Amino acid sequence: MNLVIFSGPPSSGKTSIILKTIDSMKKRDIKAGVVKFDCLSTDDDILYEKAGIPVKKGLSGALCPDHYFASNIEEVVQWGVKSGLDLLVTESAGLCNRCSPYIREIKGVCVIDNLSGINTPKKIGPMLKAADIVVITKGDIVSQAEREVFSSRVNSVNPKATIMHINGLTGQGAYELSTLLYDEDSQLETVQGMELRYPMPSALCSYCLGETRIGEAYQMGNVRKIELGDDYA
Fold this sequence. Notes:
Strand order of the largest sheet: 3-2-4-1-5-6-7
Distance between the termini: 60 Å
Low-confidence stretches: none
């Protein structure tokens, strides 16, 4: 079984790109399934079910969804193996700009959209910086010049990545992506012992542990203060 990890900010078009890519794979008799990771709620699993794609979802609740991913990915891989999948896709919530779910030796894809803002590539951290492939969406509603500038910003953050422009509505470009994601000679049985590409900050502070009161007397652990300069006394 192949494993591919999709990440990217919310509403960037991850689910649409995955659906179109798997549709291209079905025509080549590749059986693909999806595990959707999110925080509090998602209906994306319904979209996959309607498309006839085996799917599971996991909600992290009060935990960082990427920490939750790392704690559960081995069990998810075993589900994919037992289900007889040729390709397992995991889709992240994309809610944490400090973390990245990518694993060494496993393909990582970041989906980002042209409408997210020209400085967004700098903001989303290892989710983009550590990806093998960056898919840029919603190019049909911006000008050619805007597409080129945005693509250049992505390249400046991650010059090693393959950058692709894919239309999540029409599927244009999805076949080309599918050919990069599936390798019939690659057979993964487990991710036990593999390593994340990027260490996830624990950010363990009082508020991570359930503290609700405001004030220095209640702040312990990993506490970082803002620099306000001489205006603050």
